[in-house]
């Protein structure tokens, strides 16, 4: 893993958390310009990057993530942000939703959730903070999104967060068969072809949300 975070306390906390969970942290960065060379040198299994870093505290981490994925296609990147910033989330997801994550920093404090999200991203999946998903869905008030039932919308939100059918079923306290049916309805209403692969269906949903 490579970590980029300017807050020394949080940076060291992430290093300790990841190493305690059995991951190897091969490099750390505190500024935007340090990130790309570090990623190209270590070619990590995944990178955890803060969105806003010195020197400008604007979008240095995001720019580095996009540049790194251009140089290392498919590099799993989990981006951390203090607030929900739709533009950043949409830009990161715009190049395809494989191996990308966008979490609010508060989520790091929920250790199990954070590590689960990181593992999904490292495996080529997607991990979006529920608040980010809500913001992205809220942007799309036009049809056919409004044609979804409340339950189908719940399923779509959980799909967009990267969860599989079993996890969605447990979260909503329904059967997996019911989840499969809802997913079929969601794809049909959004004009998207059904896909059995977990990552393919998430990419399809996110591609629609960011169209």
Automatic annotation (TrEMBL):
Please name the InterPro entries in this protein's record. Answer: CheY-like_superfamily (IPR011006), NreC/VraR/RcsB-like_REC (IPR058245), Sig_transdc_resp-reg_C-effctor (IPR016032), Sig_transdc_resp-reg_receiver (IPR001789), Tscrpt_reg_LuxR_C (IPR000792), WalR-like (IPR039420)
Domain Response regulatory residue range list = 1-120
> What keywords are assigned to this protein?
DNA-binding, Phosphoprotein, Transcription, Transcription regulation
Pfam family, any one? Response_reg
What SUPFAM superfamilies would the database entry show?
C-terminal effector domain of the bipartite response regulators, CheY-like
HTH luxR-type domain mapped to chain residues: 141-211
Residues modified as 4-aspartylphosphate: 50
User: What is the protein name given in its UniProt record?
Assistant: Response regulator transcription factor
């Amino acid at each position: 893993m490579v970590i980029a975070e300017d807050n020394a306390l949080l940076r060291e906390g992430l290093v300790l958390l990841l190493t305690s969970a059995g991951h190897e942290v091969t490099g750390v960065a505190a500024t935007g310009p340090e990130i790309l060379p570090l990623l190209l040198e270590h070619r990590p299994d995944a990178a955890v990057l803060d969105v806003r870093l010195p020197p400008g505290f604007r979008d240095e981490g995001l720019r580095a993530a996009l540049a790194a994925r251009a140089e290392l296609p498919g590099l799993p990147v989990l981006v951390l942000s203090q607030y929900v910033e739709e533009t950043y989330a949409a830009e990161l997801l715009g190049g395809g939703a494989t191996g990308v994550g966008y979490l609010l920093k508060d989520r790091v404090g929920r250790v199990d959730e954070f590590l689960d999200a990181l593992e999904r991203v490292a495996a080529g999946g997607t991990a979006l903070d529920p608040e980010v998903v809500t913001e992205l869905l809220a942007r799309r008030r036009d049809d056919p999104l409004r044609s979804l039932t409340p339950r189908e919308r719940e399923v779509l939100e959980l799909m967009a967060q990267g969860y599989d059918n079993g996890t969605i079923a447990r979260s909503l306290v329904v059967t997996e068969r019911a989840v499969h049916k809802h997913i079929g309805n969601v794809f049909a209403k959004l004009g998207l072809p059904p896909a059995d692969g977990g990552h393919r269906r998430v990419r399809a949903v996110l591609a629609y949300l960011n169209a």
